[in-house]
Amino acid sequence: MPEHYTKSLPYELELTSRILHEAAKCHFAQCNYPISPEEFAILDCLYLKPDIIQIDLARMILKGRAHTGRFLKSLEEKGYVKRKSERNGSKTVTKNIITKEGHALYNRICSEIDKYIEETNSDVNIQINDVIKLLQEIRENCMEKFDIKFE
Amino acid sequence: MPEHYTKSLPYELELTSRILHEAAKCHFAQCNYPISPEEFAILDCLYLKPDIIQIDLARMILKGRAHTGRFLKSLEEKGYVKRKSERNGSKTVTKNIITKEGHALYNRICSEIDKYIEETNSDVNIQINDVIKLLQEIRENCMEKFDIKFE
DNA sequence: AATTTCTTGTAGATTTGTCTACAAGAAATT
DNA sequence: AATTTCTTGTAGACAAATCTACAAGAAATT
Fold it and tell me: Of A24, A53, A133, B123, which one has the greatest count of Cβ atoms within 10 A?
């Protein structure tokens, strides 16, 4: 049992997250990528779910819907994403299509991101996949208990 | 090895941290505490290291020095901390002394914070202490590799 | 004694993130 | 056909975090 809040798992997570956020910004700046880690995360989500609608994308990255729209606008202005309303049978869906430049940039960043992720590893003898599962459970658990929404 | 950045440990950490941040704000609001989780973290640090100077406090909570000063000012204005320059032998040290009201509030929050921390736990069969050690190692590792400073 | 360094208080300025709101187009419902 | 709901684009207000800068007091160094 932790005696102090600042030594508890939630607070330790907060500190580590802040460092990793800075580290990612650092990596992106050093490599001269024209987008931020947040924008790359959106590109990655679009690769995972090409047909995702904006509101679900927002839930995926845990940001507000309007905020997410701003990221997409920025990506579109830079030419890496093209927003297009398309007919999908009887439905009209606004697709976020990754452009050729977007693909090239994504592949370029991916080829160097593994190195970054490995650099953030430590020697603690622990299964990373178990930790990720733990983090996901904590998220779902808290979102339900505290009724957390981002919009 | 994770195929996608958004499924990697650093990004999962970021998401979970954001949820826990909201959860903490929620808990503090529901309990009607007159201070924020950030301010409570400072109180907790002052309990851990009563004689800590401002610049080291800033390093402890991973915020900039000026930012930390603002938190202390807020805590002082609310009457939970008293800043006082004191002679300590040949040195003059600005001490951040917790007032009686500060002690009362700290104890009140502590008596309910364990419940909050337990609520954030999950059923994943994993040693929390190992995870905390992992997080601390990741932090130190990244701060060194990317030369991260907050000021 | 003079200079430099360290720590702190504090005031903008800037950036970033969040929240709210409204209009528009399309789909679903009545 | 009319109404309601869903999704999106976008703007403005607001709040939080960060950065920069400067002055002042004290300690350490020269």
Answer: A24
Nucleotides of C under 7 A from a protein CB: 7-12, 17-21, 26-28
CB-CB under 8 Å, B136 with A131: no
Contacts of B80 (CB under 8 A, 6+ apart): B35, B39, B43, B98, B99, B101, B102, B105
Q: Answer whether A135 sits within 8 Å of B40, measured CB to CB.
A: no
Q: Which of A143, A11, A9, A20 is nearest to B40 (CA)?
A: A11
pLDDT in tens, A84-104: 877 666 667 788 999 999 999
Task: Domain B34-122: give its CATH architecture.
Answer: Orthogonal Bundle (1.10)
Which of helix, strand or coil describes residue B119?
A: helix
| Burial annotation A51-79 (CB, 10 A radius, 16+ → b, else e) | ebeeeebbebbbbeeeebbebbebbbeee
Residues of B in contact with A14 (CB under 8 A): 17, 20-21
